Structure formats: C-alpha cells, structure tokens
Amino acid sequence: MNSIKNISLTFLLCGLANVLTACGENFSASNVSLGGSGSGHQKPPNPTGGDSIPSHDEKDTIYYVKIPAMNNNECMGMQRNVHFIFTDSKQAIPVGSTQYLPLTSLQVEIKNTTPNYIFERADQCQPFKIQKNDMVFARSPYPHCSLEQQSVQVFQPYETKIYTLNLDFINAAHQWDVNYLVSYGSELPSTRSQWEKCPPLPLSFTIQKRKIPTALEDELQQPTTEQNLEATLP
C-alpha cells in the first residue's frame, strides 16, 4: 500500500492533469514539441539530495573545459543524446574546442520515436548523477523525494523534451562524469508495471584551471560573452 501511495503521490505532484511537464522549484519548461518540431527546455535547479559539491574560493582562477563529442543511445524507442551548448545562445559548441566553463551548459535531449505514450521513471526523483572520483552528486528537475519514491514523466507520441544542465557549480579541476539514469514503461504506473531499466546516457569531460593574468582579471569584471575569452584560453 505504501508503494502505491509513493508512486501515485509523486506522479500527481508532477502534473498528471496535462500529460505532465516537469515540475520543481526554480524549474522552467516551455515549448514542448510534438512530431519532432521545436523543443521543450527544462533546467534542473541546484543539486538536491546527498552531499553538496564542495566550493573553493579561488577568485584569481578560471575554469575551462575541452568539449567532448556528443554521446547518444536508444532505449525502448527513446532516442537520447547529451552534448555541450553555449548557455546564452543554446548553440552546440564545436567538439575539441576549449571553452570558459561558466559560458557552457550540458544539454540532454530525449525523443519518443514511437506512436505510443512512454513513461519515464527516475528513482529517488534524481535522473542526473554527477561523479568526481568516488564522490557522487545528484541534480534533479523534480522535488526531493525519499528513497522509496520515484518521479514519473510522460512522453506523448513523438514528443521531445530537452533538459539544460548548468555547470556553474563545478569548481574543481578534475575529470567529471555525468550520467542520465532512468527506466521506461508503456503502461500507466502501478505496482504491476513493467519497467525497462536503460543503460546510462553518459558524458565525461575534464575541467582544468589556470591563474588569471592581471590584465584579464580586470576584463573579467565585465559581462562575459562566448567570444571575449576565446583568445585567452589555452
């Protein structure tokens, strides 16, 4: 009985009434697409649950990332890909280029390629797992829930949802691994529902840092753009 309540409560909180768009504090969603045109942009808020990512006060340091290739896979008719974009323009960043970290975001695009409704379940309401060495952190577009609860998203036939994950919380030079971990089902969730646990959708990238030259430090007091740091990065 408790498991039924847990599934039902989370499912209803996320808006069953309108075939679900994602919900959660500081969460935005717009222009959810059907039939492959347009896109729905959804931005997870700050990390929720578990330990917080440690902060470092290094005002004379900048962080940058070498952009890896897009990764993609398919599970139960759901096409998924993850790649880097410029935060402001939402345009894809050229693979192999080096970018100032605060100007970049990760974009996860999930498309239902079937003519059927597909339900996407995230255990503990946390589809995003971020890892540095043995330390694992979670980011989620959904309200925090307990270990026994799940969040459920509904994908209409041929619908696409796009999640944008800001990386401004990363402030340690290291290799980082991001995984999107969910299960899919074709029936309205219940205790008898069959879920297919999909392989992770991963992306690994290395963050590096360097000291800011005095002249550049003054420039960084001004608003940054996608171009004005390009010449300064290694």
UniProtKB/TrEMBL annotation:
Signal peptide location: 1-24
Disordered: annotated segments: 34-57
Alphabetic keyword roster: Signal
Name of this chain's protein: Lipoprotein
